[in-house]
Amino acid sequence: MNQAHTEDETLQQLAIQAQKSPPQSPERHQCLQQLVSDILHSGKLGHPAIGNYPREVYEELYNEALQRTLIKVCTKIDQYNCAHPVMAWVNHSLKYTFIDVEQSRYRHGMTYIAGSMKNQILGCSLDDLDHPPPTPNRDDQSDADRLRQFLVEDPEGCLRKVYVRNRPEITFQRVAIAIYVEDQSWTQLSESLDISLPTLHSFFNRNLQKLKPYFKKYILP
User: Fold this and answer.
1) What is the pTM of this model?
2) For each successive 10 residues of the chain (221 residues), what is the average pLDDT?
3) Are residues 146 and 100 in the same domain?
4) In a shared domain, residues 69 and 161
5) Residue 124 DSSP code
6) Is residue 214 assigned to a domain?
7) Residues 105, 143: one domain?
8) CA–CA dist 102, 96 (Å, integer)
9) Do 215 and 141 share a domain, yes or no?
């Protein structure tokens, strides 16, 4: 029996033992504590969307997503299906939790200083979004309005020319307007467009980087 298989079995045994222990019992707590430690040291944690951000920004988003995922492992351990490897369950959760973290940051930033879209364009850290002011000032609102107007008008038609492969109706402009102007969620949009959430998110992030010069030209003061 190879080492990888042994590690998988150990994780599974800990998960099953935690499930069998009474909720909030010392036994369950001990199993979960060991399970989380083994997950972190497994070397098998996924890194979704790793190429979409500068290193510092990615680390911040990833660490938050990982923390949320490990909390889910502890609070939702009874949902684990022992027919599958523990790391498959963990990485599946991590992938979608990472998307949730991105979405949260996007929406947070849209209210303050024209959204995290502008922060990405400027190459700024997302740190400032952790403690926003109580209400946006007039300049902040002006930035947000400028961004919305730019997305709708698309002065040079660049946003509407970029689309998902084999899905010309799903343009960058359509996605951006849905999220930043119409206030749809990523989940709602993926369902309405009949496209997977990771594919939609990857398409948007990848092309946002390519369109930086265009955004800089029109929305920066």
Assistant:
1) 0.55
2) 73 96 93 95 91 76 92 95 95 92 64 42 36 43 76 95 95 91 82 87 84 83 55
3) no
4) no
5) -
6) yes
7) no
8) 10
9) yes
